[in-house]
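Record 1 of the preview.
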Amino acid sequence: MTLVMLLGVASASAYSQDVDQKQRLVKAAFILNIAKFVTWPEASYQTRPKQLVLCHYRQDVLEEAYEIIRRRKVGARQLQAKLIDDMAAASQCDMILVAKEEMASLLDDSASLSSDPVLVIADMTDQEGQGVAYKHVSVALVRRGSRIGFEINLQEAKRLGLVLSSELLKLAQIVE
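->
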């Protein structure tokens, strides 16, 4: 009986890990596809003409799932990843992915955040979409029932000089 219980726990744990990995793969695909519909100011292309840098703020949300998008290109720019510990390094990034657990740190660290055209994406997929704009966040990945969706703070994106395609906006919930 004990062996059956242990196998059940191991099976449930493996299932949970499999679901987590699938969610990370979906998030990676969302991030890549969102990037395809964003236009950064010309200065960003001059600074990094061949790279589009996705920074992970304090923790890597995607883990191994990044591998499915690692060699992909957005326009002429190849996607690269980098881990940053504070927002003072944001100027090295085109996009920053922030885990929900790091949102408080992001707000504390926001004094270091400049007005560089950096698309900040918050991973809020452990909760249902709230229809709320998060400070300094342009895109929030959220849950919509059993699916992942996204909310866009259009005012924040415009403030940073980012242009979001109407095709992207049609798929998102706009929040203020």
